[in-house]
Amino acid sequence: MAKFKRILLKLSGESLMGEQKYGIDEKRLNEYAQQIKEVHDMGVEIGIVIGGGNIFRGLSGAGKGFDRVKGDQMGMCATVINSLGLSSALDAIGCKSRVLTAIRMEPIGEFYTKWKAIEAMKNGEVVIMSGGTGNPYFTTDTGSSLRGIEIEADVMLKGTRVDGVYTADPEKDPTATKFSEITYDEIYNKGLKVMDLTATTMCKENNLPIYVFNMDIIGNLKKVMEGENIGTLVHN
User: Fold this and answer.
1) What is the spatial distance between Cα 33 and Cα 23, in angstroms, rounded to a whole number?
2) What's the start-to-end Cα distance of the chain, in Å?
3) How does pLDDT run across 66-90, given as a tens digit for each residue?
């Protein structure tokens, strides 16, 4: 029995690079698809938002002279490319999926609405919501918070390369310790970075819990759905 009935899975664009320095690693993409299918086969309704940092990140582009709005729009397009890749990988293993976009770009993807997303999930499709919020100056973290709230997900599962929330960056500080759970207020007070402030505040105000875990270890997504404590729960 799955712990959650409907989830919003946030995937990192950088993680899709796998062992590469740029773009999409097919091995990592297929591993993600297999993990998602495992959970889908448990009867879980799945919505997904993917970042685009493996292709282009608007904020870093602005630092190199790109117009910020155009840079963010390029980043939105990058998320569409990643979403199409994941959709293709899911379809290849017999898991029905649908790509919705925050900006009109038929026939690449259908224009996103909450009701279209929920109807597709109820019909057994994995729904991949791309293009961020459709607006510049918002990250895909904020996009995933917004979509998670809109589709009335039970939880946002933030799949990263780190296995939870720590007192400091575990990749830089070997003495950092992991929280098994933490409140939004504690995150603010301790100055911890789970997501950007806008995304975190949206989740707090709309009472959407976040579960942070390492998606790059095969089988971890299913473990989360089975209630195994392998990450960090962030809640009110």
Assistant:
1) 17
2) 25
3) 899 999 999 999 999 999 999 999 9
Q: 75: Cβ–Cβ under 8 A, 6 or more apart, which residues?
A: 52, 56, 57, 58, 61, 132, 140
| CA-based nearest residue to 28, from 14, 8, 42 | 14
Beta-strand (E) ranges in the chain?
6-11, 45-50, 97-101, 110-111, 126-130, 155-160, 165-166, 178-179, 181-183, 210-214, 232-235
Domains in the chain, CATH or no CATH each? 6-235 (3.40.1160.10)
**Which SS3 state, helix, strand or coil, does residue 76 take?**
helix
How far apart CA 185 and CA 191 sit, in angstroms, is 10
Full-prediction pTM beyond 0.90? Answer: yes
179-194 mean pLDDT: 93
Task: Find out whether 39 and 46 touch, Cβ atoms under 8 Å.
Answer: yes
